[in-house]
Every structure is written in C-alpha cells, then in structure tokens.
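Recall the central idea of this unit: under ordinary conditions, the amino acid sequence of a chain determines the structure it adopts. In this exercise we apply that idea directly, starting from the sequence alone.
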Amino acid sequence: MRLDKFLANMGYGSRKDVKTVVKKKRITVNDQTVRKADIQIDPDKDQVKCDDKVIQYQEYIYLMLHKPAGYLSATEDQRQKTVLDLIKKQDKVLSPFPVGRLDKDTEGLLLLTNDGQLAHELLSPKKHVDKTYIARLAKTITEKDIKQFAEGVMLEDGYVTKPARLKAVEDKMVEITIKEGKFHQIKRMFEAVDNSVLYLKRLSMGSLQLDEKLKIGEYRELTTEEVDQLSSK
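Accordingly, the structure predicted from this sequence is:
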C-alpha cells in the first residue's frame, strides 16, 4: 500500500495533507524518516509513526449505534439528518455505512461498517438472519395473529412473508422476530392483520444484541468477539 493512502485512511487528511506532513519530516517507517509520500509499505509488517507515535493500521470499522427516531439510515441526504451525522469525524474516516435500514421513526440497533462482505452476509435473503424487534401496537394481539405470523403474512401487494415469531410482552407490547427485511415490513405485517405499529425498536440482528448501556444516539465499536460471532454466521 502507498504510504499516502495508508495515512489518509488513518485520518491524517487528504493525500495533499499527507504530503505536507511527510515534507515536514514528521513520518517515519521502521524508524527511518521518509521524504516521499508515494513509497510502498506493508501495513502488516512495517511500523509507521507520526511525531514518534505508532499508527496502528485498521482496515475495517464496526460500530453499534443505538439509533434514535428522526434519522435516516443512509450515508447522506440533502434535506434530512442521517445516522452518519451521529458519528464522530475520526470514526468516519473509513467510510462506514449502515447495514440495512431502520425506518426514520424506528429506534434501536443499527450496525455501521465498511466491511462489504459482512454486510452482504447479514442482508442476503438466503442467509435468513434473525432480526428481533419490540413494538407497541394500537391493539392487543390474538392467538390468531401469532399463528398467522408463524405461517407467513400476506401483505397488501400479495407477497407472503417468511414465518415470523410473535409473542406478547405486555398489553399491546410485543416482540417480533423476522428473517427478512422488506420495505416497512413489520408495519405492513400488522396492517395485514388489522393492527398498526405505534412504536418500533430493534433489539438484535443475528448474534449482535443492542448494548443496554448505550443511550439513544450513542454508539461504540464492536468487540472482537462480537465481530467474530457475526462473521461466523
């Protein structure tokens, strides 16, 4: 990898900015001061320092966000706030993107990463990754609703969903687990059984559980164990 790309990826500015840093003799590779930003290095073997501070190379970033309502699950939008507006500048250097989407008014677990392969694995319809939500409804569910969800619900466009697990938590509060992610799917499923969703929050996606310590709008990096568990699915 070129040194200027390495430094840019690690948050040291644009390649033009990096050239300036190198010219000022602030960068060393294996304790040798470098004078050119376009030299080739091996991020796994060479030790790069800036002002005598070691720069640890990071290829991927994995962030767990407790998404608040009012934010789009997108990387940018001209008119509305996106979940990337909640991420600090230094954590956006590696260009993370939301894995799948939560509706604007939906809260809860949202994974952001730049690992395209993992995102594909989690979103692929063939993988049937469980996604669990808690919802507050306009009406109390019935045993008929639970059975209907277990068999698959026909939506207004004729599509029949894959079987879903539905259980009551308390009056008009339910937990629902689905294996797919059609547009507004949970809201449409309840509308199909003459009910409506008043509040929706995602609790988990595959093995990843929303950290209860994260307040709404907060995020943290995934632990190595969490990444490994997701990658093994």
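The CA atoms of residues 152 and 229 lie 28 Å apart.
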